[in-house]
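Postdoc handover notes: sequence design on the structure in folder B. Input tokens:
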């Protein structure tokens, strides 16, 4: 029995799942659990991955960072759609969009709070040597790379504006 456990753990460590493989496994799990929200969310991510792989000029490979960017884009789309549905008086559709967005968020790394983003931006401003709002472009370039996946662009932008003002 111990040898099987050892082989299983060795396999898991040696051949760790990529995010794409994890999403494929989660599609199977959502089908078995008959969870329509999780199934729709994971299928949307899988569809985006397939589009990326087959895009013109692509090499057919996708990295975890590419998948994270796709997931962030899909979450942003879902939240914007929910806002539009609420404005149109269709809260049931907005709830569905928000449920799918929250199902996708489990693949993202832990999101930073606004205060944490602001402290990181202060460090970046000191590192870059920015002094006024004119330096916002330089700070945003460094901040978006440093905080990729941990905060959305809108939060980073508002933190940079408040620090530089």
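Designed sequence:
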């Amino acid at each position: 029995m111990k040898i099987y456990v050892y082989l299983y753990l060795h396999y898991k460590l040696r051949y760790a799942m990529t995010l794409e493989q994890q999403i494929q496994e989660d599609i199977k799990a959502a089908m078995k659990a008959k969870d329509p929200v999780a199934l729709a969310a994971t299928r949307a991510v899988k569809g985006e991955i397939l589009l990326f792989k087959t895009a013109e000029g692509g090499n057919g490979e996708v990295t975890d960072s590419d998948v994270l960017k796709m997931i962030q884009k899909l979450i942003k789309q879902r939240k914007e759609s929910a806002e539009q549905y609420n404005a149109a008086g269709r809260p049931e559709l907005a709830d569905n969009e928000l449920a799918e967005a929250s199902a996708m968020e489990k693949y993202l790394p832990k999101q930073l709070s606004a205060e944490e983003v602001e402290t990181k931006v202060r460090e970046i401003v000191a590192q870059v040597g920015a002094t006024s709002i004119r330096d916002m472009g330089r700070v945003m370039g460094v901040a978006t790379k440093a905080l990729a996946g941990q905060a959305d662009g809108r939060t980073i932008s508002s933190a940079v504006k408040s620090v530089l003002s």
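Context for whoever picks this up: The mean pLDDT is 85. Don't rerun without checking with the PI first.
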